[in-house]
Amino acid sequence: MNLYPLLRPLLFSLDPETAHEVTLKLLKTSHETGLAKLIYPDIPDKPVQVMGLDFKNPVGLAAGMDKNGDYINALDALGFGFLEIGTVTPRPQPGNPKPRLFRLPEHQAIINRMGFNNLGIDHLLTQVRLSRYSGILGINIGKNFDTPIEKATDDYVIGLRKAYPSASYITINISSPNTKNLRQLQQGDEIKALIATLKEEQLKLQIEHGFYVPLAIKIAPDLNDDEISHIARLLLEFEIDSVIATNTTIFRGAIAGHPLAHEAGGLSGAPVKAASTRVVRSLASELNGKVAIIAAGGILSAEDAQEKIKAGAQLVQVYSGLIYKGPQLIEDIIKVL
């Protein structure tokens, strides 16, 4: 039963951030009252093994939808093969001033400059424990906005240490355009130093806890070919488990002339599809199957997801597509993969 086409006009009449909160609360209520079982279909499993983990299907929720882990069980009821929560920072922070989220329906796009608004990693980990979720859970970690960029590694180490016992995998977000200077961590010696430190910490934590939690690096769609090659070589050198391609774009060519095109922030949805797929394809040619690729960016149909898999991804993640297409998108993708 696909109710989303009926609900979408109502949700789109609300401020985007309000609509986001209302949607998550409706999902939680439908799950807690048992309505979810009536509304959402039982999606057949399509198992896939990636990063040494067993996914019930290859379609995941991208980070950003549930920053604090408050809605894990409700989101699981939609049929995802895995969930990624966050981005979460060591300390709570309010994010950027509102308004900071904008819809562009003509382009099936979103602009956001949320700025890692979250309640801090301790809150998120409490919610994970309360959820008792048994599926594949990614925890996406970032740095606090007021941590100097030269101290950014310290924040990622804190996040890695705290998230390690509770995560199926941990994503290092160095590609959000909404935290000042964050994207410079993707460049040259800075990314090498960061990856080296985090890989060393991961191996220490493996010894300490007696199990291995894979690491993923989330990168931007705006990297040039040389930058992608540099990152790919580092992923191989340090045996990073996965790369997520990609985050949002800062480029506005696809929405030139739109009244909101001037708004600062990351652009997601249909306009980022081609750039994200280009990065997936470039990574696939460099990595030769030795590092898993999770594709995100511009997946608004089953065909879009197929395109990412053909480009070289093993898993896909959706977010903006859910806003425009609703939960039916998940089942549609699983049917064709």
Descriptive notes:
This protein is an alpha/beta fold and 337 residues long. It has a single domain (4-336), classed as Aldolase class I (TIM Barrel, Alpha-Beta Barrel). The chain is 40% helix and 17% strand. The protein has twelve helices and 13 strands. The chain has helices at 4-12, 16-32, 35-39, 72-76, 121-131, 152-163, 188-209, 225-237, 273-287, 302-311, 320-325, 328-336; strands at residues 48-50, 53-55, 59-61, 82-88, 101-104, 109-112, 136-141, 169-173, 215-219, 242-245, 266-269, 292-296, 315-318. The strands form three sheets. Strands 3-4-7-8-9-10-12-13 form an eight-stranded parallel beta barrel, surrounded by four helices. It has a three-stranded antiparallel beta sheet with strand order 5-6-11, with no helix packed on it. A hairpin with a 4-residue loop joins β5 (101-104) and β6. α7 packs parallel to α8 (225-237), α8 (225-237) packs across α9 and α10 packs across α12 (328-336). The longest helix has 22 residues, at 188-209. It is globular, with a radius of gyration of 18 Å. The mean pLDDT is 97.
Secondary structure elements and their pairing?
Blueprint (H helix, E strand, L loop, with lengths): L3 H9 L3 H17 L2 H5 L8 E3 L2 E3 L3 E3 L10 H5 L5 E7 L12 E4 L4 E4 L8 H11 L4 E6 L10 H12 L5 E5 L14 H22 L5 E5 L5 H13 L4 E4 L20 E4 L3 H15 L4 E5 L5 H10 L3 E4 L1 H6 L2 H9 L1
Parallel strand pairs: 3-4, 3-13, 4-7, 7-8, 8-9, 9-10, 10-12, 12-13
Antiparallel strand pairs: 1-2, 5-6, 6-11
Helix pairs in contact: 6-7, 7-8, 8-9, 9-10, 10-12
